[in-house]
Amino acid sequence: MRSEKEIREKYAAITMRLIKMSKTITTMESATSGLIASLLTDIEGSSAIFKGAFVTYCNEAKIRNGVSKDIIIKYGVYSKETAAEMACACRQFYKTDIGIGVTGTFGNIDLENTDSVPGEVFFALATNEMTHMYSYNLNNFNSRYESKLEVAGIIADKLFELSKPVNNFLVWFQLNKEYESYTLYYGDKELVSSATQATDVNTLIATNNKLQYNLKTKMSKEADR
Predict the structure, then answer these.
(1) Which domains does the chain have, with CATH numbers?
(2) Rounded distance, CA 141 to CA 157, Å?
(3) Which end of the chain offers a freer environment for a tag, N or C, measured as fewer CB atoms within 10 Å?
(4) Residue 55 forms beta bridges with which residues?
């Protein structure tokens, strides 16, 4: 397990990156009891990207704050699906770019929920484009705080990757009968001009406002080469 200092430094880097990108974030936490929110706001200027958060320890608190009761009944409160609902609910409430949902069992079995398994944690990161869902099994049970910190470190890794700046460039791509030109990089991954990738590019364009382009003029020039 990484040290608390390393985890705090990573959250500081994430917050500074979000400030630079003008991206907002919020959380709905159960198992981690607000630790993620605390780590995100431990540096000066964090109020620019953090509006508020939820700590929803019981099912009722989750439901009152936007989590679907039907999802909890169908999948259990300790599930990736409920974590995804939590991430989306807090993001919608605060109108942020990113929402984080965390649920799980650290120590004793939760007698009120039959799906409680000590050491199983589920979390999700919701953005405008999609919701990423994860599960994780804890490696240590030395203390509840150490368990929370371990989970916070795993979430930091995923969040750091998700918050990488997206670079947009131009390449040409034949989308349909008309020539339209796109050059798309998502993070460090290039989506190149191949007809077999049309579906992927269409999806990316439709779901990410920053990658929507109308480049018919550019396309015709490329087609003439």
Answers:
(1) 4-162 (3.90.950.20), 168-223 (no CATH)
(2) 21
(3) C
(4) 29
* pLDDT digit string, tens, across residues 135-167: 999 977 678 899 999 999 999 999 998 877 644
* DSSP sequence for 20-46: HHT--EEEEESTTTTHHHHHHTSSTTG
β-pairing, 25-29 vs 98-104, is parallel
Q: For the residues 163-187, what does the mean pLDDT come to?
A: 41
Phi and psi of 192, rounded to 5°? -100, 180
Contacts of 56 (CB under 8 A, 6+ apart): 28, 29, 30, 62, 65, 67, 86
pTM: 0.73
Q: Two tokens at 163?
A: 């918050």
Tokens of residue 223, six digits: 């087609």
How far apart are the C-alpha atoms of 177 and 212, rounded to whole Å?
19
